[in-house]
Input
Amino acid sequence: MLTVSDLRAGYSRGADVLKGLRFDVAKGESVALMGRNGMGKTTFVKALMGCLPHVRGSITFNGTEIRGLPPYRISNLGIAYVPQGREIFGDFTVAENLAMGVIGKPLKVDSVDFVFDYFPILAERRTQLAGTMSGGQQQQLAIARALVGRPQLLLLDEPSEGIQPSIVQDIAMTLKRIAAEEALTVIVVEQNIDLVFRLATSVRFIENGLIKTGVSIDEVRSDPTLVSRYLTV
Amino acid sequence: MSLIFLIGLDATGYVLALLLVCIGLVIIFGMMNVINLAHGELFLIGAYSVVYTQSLGAPFWLVLIVAFCLVAFIGLLIEQFIIRHIYHRFLDTILATWGISLALKQAIIVIFGPASQQVVAPFAEPVAFLGITYSSYRLFVMAMAIAVTAATFLVLYKTKLGLTARGVIANRQMASCLGVNTRRIDRLTFAFGSGLAGLAGAVMAPLMSVDPQMGVGFLIPAFLSILVGGAASPVGAIWGAAVIGTSNSVIAAVWTPVIAQILVFSLAIVVIRILPNGIAGWKKK
Output
């Protein structure tokens, strides 16, 4: 579904964070991208989304080369993005935030109500200003806003960040259910091993802008040295 | 008693005229963060489009539509060829729009000459009510200002396009990542704000001497109003126009216009010093 080869990207010219990265995701996979801070995880998802100025190499999505396209066209091809820090529209209501998720889509979406099935709290708070909600609720809103556009591939950047552990578990379970029911392919950047175990089917470890190894989730479970090698400082 | 009523009506008229100019400016300055020094010239082109279309014998309602569309189109060109390259260079937008303002003003002088032009109001019969008589056209300008402001608010807060525009303004990158073509929204917003300046110029033309300097007279109090009212939202334009317009016309009626200018500028400095985000910004907290 997604094939990335020789991806080089960074925030300023001549200072690449990603140094020729290769990455493949098959339809229906839930891949966790793990690695220490500063290794290029967020840079990678931003490069996929078209949010970086200096990106070279190739990114194909369903056979279409998407490198160099502006973010809105990548979004409209079926990739949805839940960024680090959620980036919800704080001055907008929950309903308006969800509307932003479909407003630019070429196909008219009849209803966004199906996401309330996954996140019932949002249905209760439709008219509340998103900025006044708790971190966990905002994260649910950010995920729901990504889903309403009916994407095929969902990119999640640190969905557990700043959220209390019990809510993280709930969100992980809900994401697992969404991936199955909506036939979604998921790439999740995450440091929280608990969330990764609940959601992912495989794990890729990133180090210094390159994918070092890719393994199934069962191998990660049976070999704790993998996590310590790529995650502990 | 009727004198006070007359002063009140004049003040209201000035406030609403100021609001008419501010509402386009607040969209471009407050929401898109571009200090558009050419706003006065867009106003000017709106007024001159009345001079031209009236000489062709077009009805006044058509003149207004032409003024809006023509100036919106000019705004579109300015955005497409100049502003879009310098959105992230705030200070350069001042320099660039100042250049545009000079070019537009000179173009007007080349076409129409430096002398002032006379624009005839479509109707001017005085109407008598509550013991005074008042120009019907002035009442029409007030009604237009209210209608244009209301329409702008409806577009911004009750339509999908308005929601999209506010989303792009609040978080450009995220809006783009959700599938919004932000370039299209930038163009539309800038053209809409420009068109409103043109419409304001056209509506105000019969009340003013239409000459190449007329834009400046409204630009300064309009910027002042937005700073005092709060640039972040269109509500600020209403607050600012009310405060600046009322104090200016009341003080001018009691003393002289010169004292009014001095006092209003001093008042504005005090308000901005105490409330850096303007009156609307303070209300929000």
Strands of chain A lie at 2-12, 15-25, 30-34, 54-61, 64-65, 79-82, 153-157, 185-189, 202-207, 210-216. Residues 35 and 216 of chain A are 16 Å apart (CA to CA).
